[in-house]
Write a structure and sequence with these properties.
Length: about 475
């Protein structure tokens, strides 16, 4: 687990810095752009997010978990990635007009045109980035990702501030992609040449295709809520839902995006080395749930103050949907960990099956919710994520042969810790009901942290030992 801890510390450190950049950027942009403008960009970018999953064709995950990654297979993977990316770039340009007509919003088509440039650029660095993840060289990746995130935030804020409007967000995405690809090529080792090869295409696509199908359906599940709401309700409602998903997603990404690049390579490495994957998984769940569950529970309690502080009164419509989404995100953090274990052990067929079974259920729940109101849409999203998590755990339990009681035993201490943190947060809100948004957020953070620490101490949770060790090291300095 030592390699995992080191990789996680690097990756999570990077994601927290990126989180700060995204946080500042979202706050500034929410005061420059209207809900309608953000809704336009959200719909356009979400339409293309489905294409991004198809563009990769599961090649990145194939490279990470492949036991015998020969030069011929690597070159084939690079060739397939380039061909698919450029094909999708052309398709995105061709459909921009019809998509804009479907939503009756010309701006959606403009966003598609600009963001399609990413498809021409990304394949030059995607294989090299996957190799860095396979080798768990996260020290190099942190430099690449931080530079890209800073560029994205700076360009987006700068263009929107000078009156470019929602299209400035699209150009910011392109700028971030250019920086990411250039730095990846400069930092990584030259293992891929410009010579095209397709000799191993059957083997590469057999595994990569399953991951691609899973990613495509996953992205569809992420994109569907705003796309459905934008059509069945209004673009403004899509903006509210997008902001709700954004504020909850910032917390989710700050926690999980530091772990997700590490988890599958770690489980794959453990599996190749003959280690006990079950114990690694249960320990990961024990640690992760002590962080993710309290964070989302306390966010739900303080969401009205968070939205008011960050985005202002014009975004009050996002409060209730965001509270509901917190429950889904807490469950999803465990589901993603279970999925990484399944994929890391080479069971790519299940990665696709999870999404084939789960996403139609989620889509139906979202569609039903859109016929009622925005909170019901959020409820459909959360319930769908919980269903997918439950199914993933069921399959992993069969593979690793662990019982429900073993899993519950790993979660119980974290559930108690969550109760301590959220009750402390709720007690503060009840004690100081008239606090302004800034004081309310600071008070909730402080009370939640105290409740969380108390819960860790009472349960003798292993995360408490890790926190104490970090404090001792800082004190010595």
């Amino acid at each position: 687990m030592a390699d995992l801890k080191k990789a996680v510390l690097i990756s999570v450190g990077e994601k927290y810095i990126v989180f700060v950049l995204q946080f500042v950027s979202s706050v500034v942009l929410a005061r420059i752009l209207s809900p309608h403008e953000i809704g336009i960009f959200s719909i356009g970018s979400l339409v293309l997010s489905l294409s991004h999953a198809l563009r990769d064709l599961g090649i990145s995950n194939y490279i990470i978990q492949e036991k015998e990654l020969t030069p011929q297979r690597l070159q084939t993977a690079a060739t397939i990635t380039l061909a698919m990316s450029w094909l999708l770039a052309v398709v995105a340009l061709l459909v921009s007009g019809p998509v804009a007509a479907f939503y009756r919003e010309e701006g959606v088509g403009q966003v598609l045109v600009v963001l399609s440039l990413n498809f021409f650029i990304l394949p030059f660095g995607s294989v090299s980035a996957a190799l860095l993840r396979r080798k768990m060289q996260f020290g190099r990746l942190i430099r690449i990702n931080l530079a890209s995130a800073f560029t994205h935030a700076a360009v987006g804020i700068g263009l929107c501030y000078h009156g470019v409007g929602f299209i400035g967000l699209a150009w910011a995405g392109v700028a971030g992609t250019v920086v990411s690809v250039v730095l990846t090529l400069l930092i990584s080792e030259r293992e891929v040449t410009a010579r095209p090869a397709l000799g191993e295409w059957r083997h590469v696509l057999q595994t990569g295709g399953r991951f691609a199908g899973a990613s495509l359906l996953w992205e569809f599940g992420l994109s569907a809520p705003e796309m459905i709401v934008g059509k069945t309700m209004s673009v403004e409602s899509a903006g509210y839902l997008g902001r709700a998903q954004g504020v909850v997603g910032l917390a989710y990404r700050s926690l999980m995006e530091g772990l997700m690049p590490v988890l599958m390579p770690f489980f794959a490495q453990s599996h190749r080395g003959g280690e006990d994957v079950l114990q690694h998984f249960l320990k990961s769940v024990r640690y992760l749930s002590a962080l993710s569950f309290p964070i989302f529970a306390c966010m739900a309690v303080a969401m009205d103050a968070i939205v008011l502080l960050l985005y202002g009164e014009q975004w009050n419509g996002a409060v209730e949907p965001a509270r509901i989404l917190c429950a889904g995100m807490a469950a999803l953090s465990i589901g993603v960990t279970a999925g990484a274990a399944v994929g890391g052990m080479g069971h790519s067929e299940y990665a696709l099956r999870f999404q084939i079974v789960g996403q139609p259920v989620k889509f139906a729940l979202i569609l039903a919710g859109s016929l009622v109101a925005l909170p019901q849409v959020a409820l459909g999203v959360a319930a769908g994520d919980m269903f997918i998590t439950a199914y993933t755990l069921l399959v992993l339990g069969r593979i690793l042969r662990f019982s429900a009681m073993q899993f519950v035993a790993a979660l119980l201490p974290s559930i108690f810790v969550t109760a301590c943190a959220s009750l402390a947060c709720a007690a503060f809100r009840l004690a100081v009901p008239d606090a302004g948004p800034f004081n309310a957020v600071i008070g909730c953070v402080t009370s939640s942290a105290l409740g969380w620490a108390g819960g860790l101490w009472l349960t003798r949770h292993p995360v408490g030992g890790e926190v104490a060790a970090v404090v001792r090291r800082m004190a010595r300095r």
